[in-house]
Each structure stands twice: as C-alpha cells, then as structure tokens.
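Course assignment 3, question 2. Fill in each field.
Student: A.L.
Task: Predict the tertiary structure for the chain below.
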Amino acid sequence: MASIMVRALLVLSIFQFLPKVGDELDEAMRERMRLYAEETTQLRLLEQRSQEQSSSAWGALLFAALQHWQFWAVAEVSLLLFGLCWQLRKRSHQPESSCEEERSGSSTEDEEKERKGQDSDDEGHLVMLIAKRIRGARKGAAYKRQVAEDLVSDLLGVFQARLANSFFPVLGPAIGVGSAFEGWNPRGHDLVYHLLVPLKPPRGHSFQLELGTAEEMPAKNCVRVQLECTCMRDQCVENMLCFVHQPEEALRRNQDSSLLSSLCTGIYLDAQKIARWFQTLVSSAWGEMTQWHHYSMKLLPSRHSCKLQLRNASRRFLVVEVMFGVQQGDSDIFLSSQATEAIFTPDTTWAETYAVAEAKFFRHMAKQVPQDTFHLKCLQLCAGILVGTSFSTYTLKTVVMHLLNTIPLESWRRKEFLLRLQDIMWYLRSSLEEKRLDHFFFGNENMPEDIILPPSFQAAEPLNLFQCLVQDPAAHATALRELEELQDRLTRLLFYGV
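Answer field:
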C-alpha cells in the first residue's frame, strides 16, 4: 500500500502538472526524463527505508514526501488510491468472461508477452490493471481479423476465376488497414475490419492517375482509363481483338465485359459503379463460400465500398468493409474509393490514402520493439478518450508515430507506460500551442526503408494537419480547452477506470 501511495503521487503529478512547453522535443524530453529518474530514485529510497522502520516512522517519511505536493492534491490522491485498492480487491475475485472465438485459440500472443514481462512492484500492478481494461476491448480481435482476411481472400479467389477472361479490373490481394489491423482500436466489440483491394487494369487497358494539388480540399484525384493496342502483344490469346484498331467489333463481342462502358463515367473510373459491381459479385458468389455454412451475410448500405455484416449461430456480428484502391506506381500510397467524410465529392474523385503505409509502419515497429512494449496500448488508451471532442483518432495516431520515430524503442516498455502517456499529451499540447502538427509521410527523412513513398513525398514540404487552427482562432481556443478535458479524462481513467 505504501508503494502504491508513493508511485501514485508521481502519476498524479504527471497529469495534473503537465508542463506547457515550447522547446524542441529532444531537449525537453531528456530534461524531463532526467528529473523523472531522480524523483523515482528518491521515492524508492523512501520506500526501502519504510520497509525497515516501524509504522510510526513510515508516517513521518510519508509526511515528508507529501510536502512536495500541494495539500489538496494529497487529499485527492488518498481518495483515488482508496478507490483503486477497492477495485483491485473487487476485480481479483471476479471471474473473467470469454467469447466463443477466444476459446478456439487460448491466450493471445500479447497476453503471453505481458505475463513474461510482469514486474513485482506495485506500479506494475497499476499498469497491469490498465492493460487488463484495454485488453477487454480487444477480446477476440485477433480471431476476427483472421476471419475477415480469410473471407475476403476466399471471395477474391472466386472472383478471379470468374473474371479471368473478362475486361473488368484485376483484383489484387486484400490488405488489412486501419486500427483494427494495426492493433489499437478502442471501440471494442463494434469494430469494422477494413480491407483495401488493389485494382489493376485488364489487358488492353491502362490506368493513368490525375493527381490534384495539396491545396485543393478535397484534392481532385481521378483515374483515367485508356485503351492500349494489343495487336502484337496478345497474339497468343485466341480471337483477341484490339480495342484501338478494331473498336466496334471488340466492343460488340465484349459488350457485357467492357470496363469503359460499365464501370466508368466518361473516361474516368467511377467509385460508386465499382462498389455496386463488387457487391453484385459478392451476392452471386456467397453460396459457393465455405463461410456460407457458418455465417449469415447481409450487405449494408455503402456508396463507395462493400460493407458485409456477418452473423454466426451465436448471434455475434462481424462487420467487414472492402474498399478499393489504385496504387501510385510501386509505392504504398493509393487512391481510394472511400470518399472524404462530410464532403460531397463526385464518384469519379478518389481520395489519396496513406492507410497501407501506416499499416506497414506499425508492422515494422512490431518487429523492432521489445516484447513487453506498450506503444499500441498507449495509443488505444488515448484514442478511447476522444469521444465528444474535436480531436480525431488520426491526430493521436500521427502524434504516436512521430514519438515512435523519436523516443528509443526500448523506452516504450511497460515500466515506462505512464511516462509515455505523459509524452503523448505533452506532444499534443506543444503542437496545439504552435498550431502545427506535421503529416507523418510528407518531408519526413526518418522513414523506415521498407515503406515505399512516391519521390514527390520525400521532397515535399511538411504538410500541417493543424492549418485550420491557424486560420480559425476560435477553433484553436476550443482545442486547448478540450485538451485540458482530455487530461482530466485520462487521470480518471487511470484511477477509476471510467
């Protein structure tokens, strides 16, 4: 109990007295880490001495330690710790529930790593309690990810066989993207598993990307479909006609499978027509799927994607959303059919998406970090408190990606979990005060080599995600007030779990 009291005082100081800084990240962080190490050493010396002395001597030492904080903070911490200890005792006697999916796979790899890395101190118990809460929102996530991937992979296998001799787009292997596949989604059971299916042109066609400028909101990105001569290239294909030199005969013979006539508006690829075409394929192929015996499937309304709701015999739901993308060269940047939210765009306008590059970044980090690393749990915890504020989860995700590239990876272990939460909130405050948060993929020289970006990204000036705050002082003031609320929410969540 004494150890929890001393360490909790340090935790409260992190969130109640969060510094408002404007210096550079590395210098401020080193100074903060030095002060943190000194305070931790002093508190541990107090703890050791307390174990050797009587209860009355411990009271004197505790009183001396408490003098470093204001009196009201001591009273609040005492109440918080009483609630924390009560929750620890209560939860230790409650049996854990499990879902049908988890019984098929025993414990997850993350849980095994956490058990191996357990500390014996009371701060470790506090962090493990936090991890348990977060884990409750991730139950069955690994199993459901596998179900979503297998489902879409099987569907694509059926479609590829059907479309082998057609002039419809060639469907590439699906790529899992978004927080559900990156491992930090805070929403729990109502996850949507997003997969992006790359589209490649069929023979006799090519895709030409017409990219808008960064100043355009939204950027007018289009995919132009061009016909190519196949007279010499496809002589091995029996009765192959050239759309360029024999257009009338080729179109007449392949009228039902013409890309330009069925999936384009004019000469541009139409995202809505692509989505409807894919939805029709799913409906017609569902009876051939092995999943047909285990799930009932319902197509949910979606304008530019294919959203599937699966329900098993136990009436548990799984929602899978298939989006479509056209790759920019050989890079990890795509033009996506998923339109920008709250902005009406023509069906021939495709949004630039960095989701594939982001998923690769988190997979890269998973290979580099130590076993007991908590960077995903930090992001999940912070993203979960954003409800009702103007902050987006993408903002927090960008902050954490910048910090992962700045703070040594070994410093994201469980024992430094609370310090990393402080760094996330500090970075967000510093960015708000400066009205600047750089996009992670533009002009970033510290990029993992396995992430492939277009040359224009590497030479580009950093893109400010907070540019709207520069132009709107009222929005900036609101964001600063909401940041204070976020800090209060995080403190309550750490101690009360609410």
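Instructor remarks: The CA atoms of residues 339 and 351 lie 6 Å apart. The mean pLDDT is 76.
Grade: pending
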